[in-house]
Structures are given as structure tokens and as C-alpha cells.
Write a structure and sequence with these properties.
This protein is mainly alpha-helical. About 45% of the residues lie in helices and about 10% in strands.
């Protein structure tokens, strides 16, 4: 049997971690500000990340990593840069559109 107070304590600890992530100056950026943690289970979910693919070309020269696309459970999520490219490509490929 697990006491109810254990669940309460774990949630309080998660909220504390969420606060610490949001105020961490080592991941502060002048343009975007502090990290925004929208989920109290963030620490547990970050522990499940297996792969991060990044193109170091833009990251090294401009110090910015731009989300282009990812695939999770066979569902593709496309970032705003790729959406603009697809719209522009479609406009020039199909003159009737």
C-alpha cells in the first residue's frame, strides 16, 4: 500500500523542479528569455528521449537551432520553416492554385 501523502509529496517535488528549470540562468537566452516549463512531468519525459538529431551547421554559425520536423509514432510534425518552404514550392509548382 502506498500512502496518499507520497503522491502529494511527489507532485510538490515536480512543481519545485518545474520552478528550478524555469529560473535556471545557465539556459537563459536574451532573445527568448527563460525556459517555459508547461508540464510538471517534464523531467520524467526528458528521461525517455532516445535520439536528438541536429544539423550543426546553423547551430555553430548562428547559435540557433530551428525545429524543422520530427516523427513520433509515425505522425510527422512540421515546423514553421518547412511549412513556408512547402507553401512557396506549391505556389511555384502549380500555377492554377
Amino acid at each position: 500500500m502506498i500512502p496518499i501523502s507520497l503522491y502529494v509529496v511527489l507532485e510538490v517535488v515536480k512543481l519545485g523542479q518545474k520552478y528550478l528549470i524555469g529560473k535556471d540562468v545557465s539556459i537563459y537566452d536574451k532573445e527568448t528569455g527563460f525556459t517555459v516549463c508547461r508540464n510538471s512531468d517534464l523531467i520524467e519525459e526528458l528521461g525517455q528521449v532516445e535520439f536528438i538529431f541536429a544539423d550543426k551547421t546553423g547551430t555553430l554559425t548562428t547559435n540557433m537551432m530551428i525545429f524543422r520536423q520530427c516523427c513520433i509514432n509515425n505522425k510527422v510534425f512540421i515546423g514553421p520553416v518547412e511549412v513556408k518552404k512547402q507553401i512557396t514550392k506549391k505556389r511555384f509548382d502549380d500555377p492554377n492554385d
